[in-house]
């Protein structure tokens, strides 16, 4: 066999190898980066997606890990994801009120279905701009479901607020108020 055929055979083998394994290698490194740095679930990562997310919500006790999207993103929609409420202030701002809403029913987008299992003192985490913000549940209250909501919180503290419909009374919504307890670089 001539050197020319050996070279062509090796070249075709390498090209085939690259085409076959490149997507798997790319996805592996993307998942490792997200798992290792941002602690996301692999099945929540859109494969080969260029959708940019703003941050991540994690509540370990009830196994919530979800991407959060910017106000103007088409993915920032309560019927697709956890919704970042317009008027929220980002976790890195002084005395922030980071407000998220989600469904609590039985559908596949009912990301807040288990919020009622939380107790005072439970932890929620927001990963935002390479910083991990840890919050502790300090208050739960109800509001009438009428298209508006009164936010009850201490003004000189930073908070994460989670809003969802009450499971027993469809005319009420529950507000879970978490207070910032720490933040650190990821």
How many distinct beta strands? 8
Number of domains: 2
The tally of helices reads 1
Which CATH class of the largest domain?
Answer: Mainly Beta
Question: In words, what does this structure look like?
Answer:
The chain has 186 residues and is of the alpha+beta class. The chain has two domains: 3-40; 51-185, Sortase, Chain: A, CATH 2.40.260. Helices cover 19% and strands 31% of the residues. It is built from one helix and eight strands, in the order H-E-E-E-E-E-E-E-E. It has an eight-stranded mixed β-sheet, with no helix packed on it. The chain is elongated. Residues 24-50 have low confidence and may be disordered.
Write a compact overview of the structure shown.
This protein is of the alpha+beta class and 186 residues long.
SSE blueprint:
Layout: H1 3-38, E1 55-59, E2 64-68, E3 83-84, E4 97-101, E5 123-128, E6 131-144, E7 159-165, E8 172-185
Parallel strand pairs: 4-7
Antiparallel strand pairs: 1-2, 1-5, 3-4, 5-6, 6-8, 7-8
List keywords for this structure.
8 strands, Sortase, Chain: A, 186 residues, 8-stranded mixed β-sheet, 2 domains, elongated, alpha+beta
């Amino acid at each position: 066999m001539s050197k020319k055929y050996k070279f062509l055979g090796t070249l075709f083998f390498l090209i085939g190898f690259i085409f076959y394994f490149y997507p798997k290698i790319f996805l592996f490194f993307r998942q490792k980066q997200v798992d290792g740095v941002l602690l996301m679930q692999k099945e929540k990562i859109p494969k080969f997606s260029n959708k940019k997310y703003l941050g991540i919500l994690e509540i370990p006790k009830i196994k919530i890990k979800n991407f959060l999207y910017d106000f103007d993103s088409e993915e920032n929609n309560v019927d697709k994801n956890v919704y970042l409420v317009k008027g929220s202030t980002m976790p890195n701002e002084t005395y922030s009120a980071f407000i998220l809403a989600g469904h609590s029913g039985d559908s596949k987008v009912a990301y807040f279905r288990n919020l009622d299992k939380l107790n005072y003192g439970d932890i929620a985490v927001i990963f935002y701009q390479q910083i991990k913000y840890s919050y502790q549940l300090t208050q739960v209250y109800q509001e009438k479901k009428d298209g508006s909501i009164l936010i009850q919180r201490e003004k000189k503290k930073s908070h994460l607020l989670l809003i969802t419909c009450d499971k027993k009374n469809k005319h009420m919504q529950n507000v879970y108020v978490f207070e910032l307890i720490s933040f650190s670089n990821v």
